[in-house]
Amino acid sequence: MSQVRVDSTADGSGAPNEAGELRGRTVVLIGGGSGIGLRVAHRVVAAGGRVVLGGRTAARLTAAAAELGDGARWQTVDTGDTASLAAFFDGIERVDHLFTTAASYQVGPMRELSAADAASPFESKFWGQYHAIRLAAPKLAADGSVVLMSGAASARPAGLAPAYVACNAAIEGLGRGLAVELAPVRVNVVSPGTVDGHLWSNRPDLARAAAFDQYRRDTLLGRPATEDEIAHSVVYLFTNTFTTGSTLYPDGGYTLR
Ligand SMILES: NC(=O)c1ccc[n+]([C@@H]2O[C@H](COP(=O)([O-])OP(=O)(O)OC[C@H]3O[C@@H](n4cnc5c(N)ncnc54)[C@H](OP(=O)(O)O)[C@@H]3O)[C@@H](O)[C@H]2O)c1
């Protein structure tokens, strides 16, 4: 019986070398000027990769790139504007991995939100990522990957926000559909629980304290995540060469309680 030896390490040595998968790779992080995307950028640059940061605010991107050093460059882009996304990807020769945290939306009960606010998670988070991937697709390396950003509210709604819950569930379905269409490019989804980081630091103190207290009660590990814990999951999805069509829930067990 013949044996097949599979060596997926970057240097062919057979030694575990997760970082080697990112050495010399170009990772595009739209929303990477802050929060989870910026933590992913730090991990990629530390592993010898290059990052292209996208976002709407030049000052934020300049500061983030300065933090990261030579491995980082940036360009402004608005994921709500397909012409802006097209110009962004025109400036990039090759995309090895793509992750888009960029999104701006309103959440709330169906009975209270205006139609436009209720549609905003789909408009920004769902279609923003869809068009980013569509415009990146011609540049995606065949052995590369896309990670979509969802949220564990897809599986366990937190508070009253049905359109936001549905948007995240749709993103997880989009990940499975695109994994089929874009193969051998791998497409996966990260679906975090509540994260103690940049996004929540911009929300009112009382709302943040209430959300974090609730999360401590509702999750098995008794605390919100750090941004770097979510970045770790994203880098895993970039670098695991046999994972596609999956949704990973770094949520501290939130969906089990
Ligand atoms: N943090 C959490 O607790 C949590 C939990 C689950 C899921 N998520 C998901 O994570 C994503 C947010 O990431 P984050 O937590 O790291 O927050 P963040 O720090 O606020 O990151 C969002 C980034 O996207 C950029 N951005 C926003 N709208 C954009 C647009 N239209 N075009 C281009 N860039 C845009 C922002 O910069 P500019 O404003 O300068 O453009 C910002 O740098 C959202 O999809 C959210 O649903 C977060």
Automatic annotation (TrEMBL):
Presence of the UniProt keyword Oxidoreductase in the record: yes
Keyword presence, Mitochondrion: no
Top-level taxon of the source organism: Bacteria
Keyword line: Oxidoreductase
GO molecular function term, any single one: oxidoreductase activity
InterPro entries per the UniProt record, alphabetical: NAD(P)-bd_dom_sf, SDR_DHRS6-like, SDR_fam
PANTHER family noted in UniProt: DIHYDROANTICAPSIN 7-DEHYDROGENASE
Family statement: Belongs to the short-chain dehydrogenases/reductases (SDR) family.
Name used for this protein in its record: Putative short chain dehydrogenase/reductase
Organism name: Nocardia ninae NBRC 108245
